[in-house]
Amino acid sequence: MPPGRRIGGKMGKETGIVSPCTGLCLIDSRRNLCTGCYRTLEEIARWSGFSDYEKREILKHLPERREAFLEGEEEAF
Question: What is the value of pTM for the model shown?
Answer without folding.
Answer: 0.74
